[in-house]
Amino acid sequence: MADLPKLNVVIANNFGHLPMFVGAEKGFFKRHGVDASFRVVDTGTDMVNALHNGEAQVGDMSTTTYLKAVHSGEPFKVIGLIMNDATRDNCDDPLAIVTRKGQGIESGKIADLKGKKVGLARGQTSDEFFKMVLRRAKMKYEDLTIENIWSQFGLAPALKEGKVDAIVTWEPYVTQALTEVPDSYLVIRGGQHMSYVMVAVAHGPTVDSKPAVIKSIAAGLAQSSHFTRSNRDEAVEIFAKWVPGTDVAIGKKAVKHISFDPRLSPNVLRAFENAEDEILMNTLKGAPRLDVPSLFRPQFMAEVQKEHPEYFADLPPLK
């Protein structure tokens, strides 16, 4: 067998990226013709830096991290989706606000957060989600105190020890808090405020110069996503091999709230347009608007779907 083309891939250590770990462990990328080596990082910033510095040609990141990177001049193109529901433009089920008894916050009542201390990671997706939740409830960020807790592992202990009245996070840390903090419960889960999507991106020059390799990555992602959907418990066990300290029992509960649909669709495009609106409103005020459709390279996943319909057969049809 001839030597396969090599590619460096950077992946983040959270459940939104689960299929990438599955593909690395099961050899699915190799099966589709690319020798991909994987590096695990902690944050979207680490991911952008690895691609920027040429340490990786492919990576995965949240929609907001991706759009901010493109705004700053990075030539990244979307080649597929990882955590995603292609049938919706506002799937935010993995995100939630959690509190515990005695804090004066009723389930479903966002107004009860006024004057409270809320723990979250500033600038991350949970922060963007929380701003949208507050805006819909006609509340201001300044109506409460934000405790910046960068590590998601620190959120459940902060709630348990009474350092904060509520926390905002994503899975599996939502389920971790609900499991580990006595008398804890959801204020809200999701609520169709935003589309919490993880994108597979490639460095633009690599997409143009090595289209066959990029197609191999798309095919590996499609097979990995199909395996993850069909074998959620095993996917969590694989993740735990790569990310030490993962609580497998909590992970198996948490993964039920996550969709892994690699398809690009009009709903996904709408979700990106909405995310761009939010970034221009909240973060990059006055920046010129990106031409969002031009950031997508849908042909790779479309070709894979024609050649391997079995990887997509369990997904609902797109209208």
DSSP strand tally: 10
Which bin fits the share of residues in helices?
25-40%
* Oligomerization: single chain
- Mean pLDDT, nearest integer? 94
Structural Rg: 19 Å
Low-pLDDT parts are none
**Approximately how much beta-strand content do the residues carry?**
15-25%
| Strand order in the sheet with the most strands | 2-1-3-10-4
**What is the number of domains?**
2
Tell me the structural class. Answer: alpha/beta
Molecular shape: globular
Main sheet, how many strands, which sense, barrel?
Answer: 5 strands, mixed
How far is it from the N-terminal to the C-terminal residue, by CA?
Answer: 42 Å
The CATH C-level class name of the largest domain: Alpha Beta
CATH architecture of the largest domain: 3-Layer(aba) Sandwich
**Element order, helices and strands?**
EHHEHEHEEEHEHEHEEHHHHHH
Provide the CATH superfamily of the largest domain.
Answer: Periplasmic binding protein-like II
Summed up, the helix count is: 13
What brief labels describe this structure?
5-stranded mixed sheet, 2 domains, alpha/beta, 13 helices, D-Maltodextrin-Binding Protein, domain 2, globular, 319 residues, 10 strands
List the helices and strands and how they pair.
Blueprint: E1 6-12, H1 18-26, H2 28-31, E2 35-41, H3 44-52, E3 58-62, H4 63-71, E4 76-81, E5 95-100, E6 117-120, H5 125-136, E7 145-148, H6 155-160, E8 166-170, H7 173-180, E9 184-189, E10 198-203, H8 204-209, H9 211-230, H10 232-242, H11 248-254, H12 266-282, H13 299-307
Parallel strand pairs: 1-2, 1-3, 6-7, 6-8
Antiparallel strand pairs: 3-10, 4-10, 5-8, 5-9
Helix pairs in contact: 1-9, 1-10, 4-12, 7-11, 9-10, 9-13
